[in-house]
Amino acid sequence: MTRPCFDVRDAVVVITGGTGGIGSATARELLRRGAKVAVLDLHPDTARIAERMSADSAIGVVADVRDRASLDRAVAEVVDRFGGIDVAIANAGILSRSATLRTTSASSIPSTPAWTRSSPAAANSCSSVPYSPSSTAWAPSPTP
Length: 144
Ligand SMILES: NC(=O)c1ccc[n+]([C@@H]2O[C@H](COP(=O)([O-])OP(=O)(O)OC[C@H]3O[C@@H](n4cnc5c(N)ncnc54)[C@H](O)[C@@H]3O)[C@@H](O)[C@H]2O)c1
Known about the structure:
Blueprint: E1 3-6, E2 12-16, H1 21-32, E3 36-41, H2 46-53, E4 58-62, H3 68-82, E5 87-89, H4 120-123, E6 126-129
Parallel strand pairs: 1-6, 2-3, 2-5, 3-4
Bound molecules: nicotinamide-adenine-dinucleotide.
Residues 16-17, 19-23, 41-43, 63-66, 91-95, 99-101 line the site of nicotinamide-adenine-dinucleotide.
């Protein structure tokens, strides 16, 4: 199976829960691929954690995804630093606190994107697709 890989160079990506396990790994991979990354998290050291990821290409802002005003402030800070936002990854608080894929029933996550069900081999097998700010196909279904 071949899936598209998006070229994220210079895309500004916001990731919530970006100091946690999956969030920080995703942030680091996006930075490795040339994206600018805004890490939003409850963690009080979020700014310092993001700076350690990349002083030039990452920004960390303390924000609570349950609090609209806090998100508005964080977005304003990100836009001020990077000039806009191209992609938002809603990673924080998507399942209950202790949940993992092993302990979560499939029926409780009916909209799980296809990529979370891909094997590691499939994840590494993809063809390059140029990043486009107007693209709406950020998490596409695998091509047959
Ligand atoms: N680890 C797994 O196996 C697994 C599987 C499926 C889904 N998930 C989900 O993926 C997400 C990330 O998982 P993880 O293992 O990296 O978790 P994690 O606990 O390592 O990281 C979660 C991060 O989200 C932050 N956070 C929590 N509530 C927040 C809020 N209200 N506002 C902003 N930030 C908040 C935390 O401070 C933490 O840094 C979680 O929502 C989890 O439920 C995890």
